[in-house]
């Protein structure tokens, strides 16, 4: 996957922002980190659950591994360049979902449904992001602040 596409997708999620921490880009929603990357974005750590961590590291050990420091909380390290783009975009979206406030996730899902997308996943983000009503989720994000 193109490292800049990783950054672009992480930043495109409602309420998400990129903040440099420890000399590296971190991606947050409401101040909580859902992904972080190396300065050149060629490797990253993404928030997952323990079952997903085990499945990814078991199935693709050349792409995914248990993340340093935060792996004990279920995070995976990923070689961004070797990862399947759709799979990694889905993983980022799910990491955002685990971290974002429930109201923001609900607004995101409602906007995606209105756009004719059952759930805005990585593949849909590549093809149909222009149809996504980001304004609706931005309003919820502002109301929650």
From TrEMBL:
Q: Which UniProt keywords apply?
A: DNA-binding
Q: Which InterPro entries match?
A: YjbR-like_sf, YjbR/MT2646/Rv2570-like
List GO molecular-function terms, semicolon-separated.
DNA binding
User: Which superkingdom, per the lineage?
Assistant: Bacteria
Question: Which Pfam families has this protein been placed in?
Answer: YjbR
Give the SUPFAM superfamilies listed for this entry. YjbR-like
Is this entry keyworded DNA-binding?
A: yes
Protein name per the record: Predicted DNA-binding protein, MmcQ/YjbR family
> What is the species listed in this Swiss-Prot or TrEMBL entry?
Streptoalloteichus hindustanus
**Lineage, top ranks:** Bacteria, Bacillati, Actinomycetota, Actinomycetes, Pseudonocardiales
